[in-house]
Amino acid sequence: MKVKQKVFLALAVLAFAGCANTQNALPNGTCGVSTAQKCEMKNELTGVYKTTLPCADCDGIEATLILKDDKRFSYIMTYENQQKYTDNQSGVYSVAGDILTTENLYKEKQMYKIVNGALKMLDSQGDEVSGELAEFYTFKKIR
Q: How many Å apart are CA 60 and CA 21, to the nearest integer?
């Protein structure tokens, strides 16, 4: 084999070897269309989400959900009434398909549907909240 052919063959092998594992080697912050489920939307999901939940005996509950890179979350609820009361929770979260599930330190779970960069809080059966107040159960990403 001539030297030029050997060099060309070596370069071709290296080029193909470099492409062999590109399915799993995505740049940080990106998820390919075919691998969206596999990358667990980690970089797209982490951040701060907010909404104001309805409240029967107050002006509303300012709810903030913080999803961290290490699969941990913080959930802060501030009840808007004369005596501002704040409840803080924390725990872990997981993603299966388009459903994000949080589990606090007391093993209580809450599910959210991932929709266009927002999180729709689901009821205890895993169904979307419906009715005239449904829009208040959508957490929008602010950071």
A: 50
Average of per-residue pLDDT across 70-79:
97
The domain containing residue 19 runs over which residues? 3-35
State whether 11 and 31 are in the same domain. yes
Residue type, position 5, single letter? Q
> In the 3-class helix/strand/coil scheme, how is 64-102 assigned residue by residue?
EEEECCCCEEEEEEEECCCCCEEEEEEEEEEEECCEEEE
Same-domain check for residues 46 and 7: no
- What's the rounded Cα separation, in Å, for the pair 30 and 25? 10
Q: How confident is the model at residue 81 (pLDDT cuts 50, 70, 90)?
A: confident
